[in-house]
Amino acid sequence: MGVERPWSHQVEAAEAAWSGRHVALATSTGSGKSLAFWLPALTAVRADRAAETLAPGRIESARTRGTVLYLSPTKALAADQVDGLQRLLDASRANDVKVSTCDGDTSFEERKWVQEYADVVLTNPDFLHFALLPNHRRWTRFLSNLRYVVVDEGHSYRGVFGAHVALVLRRLARLATHYASAPATSRTGSSAPRRGIVRPAADDVPARGLTFVVASATTADPAVSAGRLIGVPPEQIVTVDADTSPAGRKTFALWQPPEVLGYEAAQARAAAANDPAADAALAEALLIDPTAHDELGLTSDPDEPATPGDSPERPRRSATAEAADLLADLTAAGARTLAFTRSRRGAEAVATQTQDHLRVVSPQLARRVAAYRGGYLPEERRGLEQALRSGAIRGLATTNALELGVDISGLDAVLIAGWPGTRMSVWQQAGRAGRAGADGLVAFVAREDPLDTYLVHHPEAIFAAPLEATVFDPANPYVLAPHLCAAAAEVPLRQSDLPQFGDAAAVTELLGVLVARGALRRRASGWYWTHARSAAAMTDLRGSGGSPVRVVEAGTGRLLGTVDAASADGSVHDGAVYVHQGVSYVVESLDLRDGVALVARRDVDFGTWSRSVTEIAIHGVRDEEPGEAPAAVPATDPVDAPSDGPTAEPTPGDQPSVLQGASPNDTAHPAIQRWWGPIGWGFGPVEVTSQVVSFQRRRLPDLQILGTEPLDLPEHTLPTTAVWWTVPAEVLEAADIDADTAPGALHAAEHASIGLLPLLATCDRWDLGGVSTAMHVDTEQATVFVYDAYPGGAGFAERGFHLGATWLRATRAAIARCPCADGCPACVQSPKCGNFNNPLDKAAAVRLLDAVLAYAPSD
Questions:
Q1: Any transmembrane segments, and where (predicted)?
Q2: Which of 488, 611, 635, 654 is least enclosed, having the fewest CB within 10 Å?
């Protein structure tokens, strides 16, 4: 394999793991983390194999052959690791180690072989949660001998997803202890575990329990993050973060798309001609992004206003169009390039536009560009991954699915179309360029977004600011409750198990709620799950809102792909346009009950954009903070309001039945209120109700509205936490904001504040939702809400509450410094507004924020 000796950081990590210490390995992309964790893991397996060979007649030798579990957040990364691992085993002539992937794409026959024979299993947290742990009795051999668990790309486990995975890992460790402690004759799920694991071991293998290795990108506080993920104190973790691998030079460009020249003349010609050809010419001048206001559920990724009439006076080319041009130029020049986009639809758009540019030069070159995103069938994903490795594909437009550590050597350049949410992600994506010590080019292409615009003008916010720490809360009761049910279904919960899941008193209290609501049954020996339904089915790790909706071609029955359940209403509703590898289809019918969208192949000159409405209601007891004025905020019913809906809104059935119908998290997080003079700041539990109510057909590429049609789709309710600020009438009046301008001012301030909160919290704007209204029933004042777009909350809104003054000052600066006159995507327009960015009033928003900040405390 060309490796003469390992680097120092690989040796340090491998030796720590070999000695039985948990390891947090946080070095840069391409630094050889894989070798660092495979060395001790494979050595342990081979040592046990050797012991088995030397003592073939001893039962304990066969019983204690070590096993290894590798977890990655994506199937692509697991498949890539298998290829690299097999090369390592072949090079070392270790053909006695049996390695296999096992995930949702694995057949029953293959899965049975893995259960019976595999030494190393590579999978993902979803399979672990939905299949392996609930069916642990079929995995008795594997779990009873589990030596190492490798958690790759640990930095990707943040927010609510991170909390879910942390609890899945606790359930895994509990079952491994259970089987390792049980006598060989009774290793079934019915026997109670005994404490104190003692494993027979080969002479050169330390006798130990389960060892975790968490590998991640460079991040802040890797030991703290890894400890929270696997459920141990940070002091029990060895941190390896000194990267000793060689690194080539990276040229990093902050690229703001240029202003469109001749826009005014093109606009005048279009107005005078008043015909489709002239409108198309204007659209070409604007280069309007067809992904604008994408509610296609492939996740929104707009870069331009909803219509030419909403454009700023000096519009810029869209990030999608600019990235497509750059990708075409790089591909034509022979460079191997990844173009990262913020969405599935964005990846399709960049790939299609790049192919169109290259087709003029060479049809063969155009075929060397493709899109890669979630929702493709497994065989499509595998084919694209292999084509990228072999060089058959030279340019790939992708979502963050390829941000992770898939080993793609020889890449020359990386394009990042839009801020990916965190500095960690930026450097992880950038690390794909110039791997193996070669030089590379990285270009961050800014969208017309307040955060992107801020960053290209403040490079210190990227290059000088510290990396973020991963933030997640496994104690969130909306996350913890269903995992306690799942754990009880696997092996009844005992009192001694509770510290594994958090504070024992808090866990006991939550178990009492689960018993009272019929989810669990309490007996003297512990807590039991007694329902026929799978307890694991109560939890969706990724917040997708249930099983994916299958997209099926009506005429042939061919499965094209899938769409997340939470996105289906806005993306594959009746009449929606669905794009797959550049081919367009129109949805004939959506059946939410069966999870099927029937589509028909059709070439169309229009796209579809859905519209949603959102309501929000405050719940919980209001405790005043010490020294603050009391809050007189009666809780009543929600009202309609302009909104930024969450990207993943669960259906009512997504919540564990034990918590349905209750005010979200009332006891754990009562609403609190503080005051800046007359300005109120609140944080606490809320309930957000959203519904897709209509959609528009818009001609491409000029986005002229062709028609609007109503939709009859169900409401979705999200119990979560929010931060809000209220402005009384006298403050509005003093800021020269009347009843006509208040909705636009509040709405604009809401949009910009959502765009800037990711600077203060480890999230991006897609983790957030917002609502603004000139008179909210609960507060009886003009109110702006920003909420976590996850059940139970994720800590992002709470961060905004505690840093309110800093947050709003940054928001005010971003709006005021934008050169546009009336507002644009770079300041107050939102890429996911459910009301098509109407109404918005930039000037009034600045006056509003000035009036609010006049009462703010100094930093």
A1: none
A2: 635
Per-residue CA distances from 744 to 20, 109, 779, 814 (Å): 59, 60, 19, 17
What does each C-alpha distance from 690 to 324, 661, 848 come to in angstroms?
A: 34, 17, 27
Give dist(CA 452, CA 831) in Å, integer.
12
Residue 487, token pair as written in the block: 């754990």
Residue 668, Ramachandran bin (φ over 0: left; ψ between -120 and 50: alpha; else beta): alpha
What tokens were used for 285?
A: 């001048």
Output the pLDDT for position 496: 95
Burial class of residue 607 (count of CB atoms within 10 Å of its CB; 0-12, 13-18, 19+): buried
Both tokens assigned to 811: 């928001």
Give Cβ neighbours of residue 518 (< 8 Å, ≥ 6 apart): 658
User: What's the distance, CA 622 to chain centroid?
Assistant: 32
Q: Is 562 helix (H, G, I), strand (E, B) or coil?
A: strand
What is the chain's alpha carbon radius of gyration, rounded to the nearest angstrom? 27
| Amino acid, single-letter form, for residue 45 | V
Q: How far apart are CA 585 and CA 576, in angstroms?
A: 8
Is the preceding peptide bond at 701 cis, omega within 30 degrees of 0? yes
Q: 306, 283, 212: which is closest to 832 by C-alpha?
A: 306
CA distance 448 to 292: 11
Sign of the four-CA dihedral 45, 49, 55, 60? positive
C-beta atoms surrounding 108 within 10 Å: 6
Q: Helices 742-756 and 842-853, interaxial angle, to 10°?
A: 70
Residue from 635, 566, 550, 621 nearest 791 by CA: 566
CA distances (Å), origin 506, targets 25, 491, 520, 820 = 31, 20, 16, 51
Write out the two tokens for 187: 């290793």
Q: Residue 461: which of 446, 473, 471 has the closest Cα?
A: 446
Q: How far apart are CA 356 and CA 395, in angstroms?
A: 13
**C-beta of residue 133 within 8 angstroms of C-beta of residue 165:** no
Strands 596-601 and 549-553: parallel
Q: Which residues of the chain have pLDDT under 70?
A: 1-3, 49-64, 182-208, 261-314, 401-410, 435-437, 450-451, 544-545, 620-669, 762-764, 825, 831-832, 834-836, 859
pLDDT reported for residue 838: 82
Taking residue 741's Cβ as centre, other Cβ atoms within 10 Å add up to: 20
Q: Which residues sit opposite 148 in a β-bridge?
A: 68, 211
Amino acid at 531: H
Query: Which pair of tokens denotes residue 718?
Result: 């999200």
Q: What angle do CA 525, 526, 527 make, to 5 degrees?
A: 145
How does DSSP classify residue 51? H
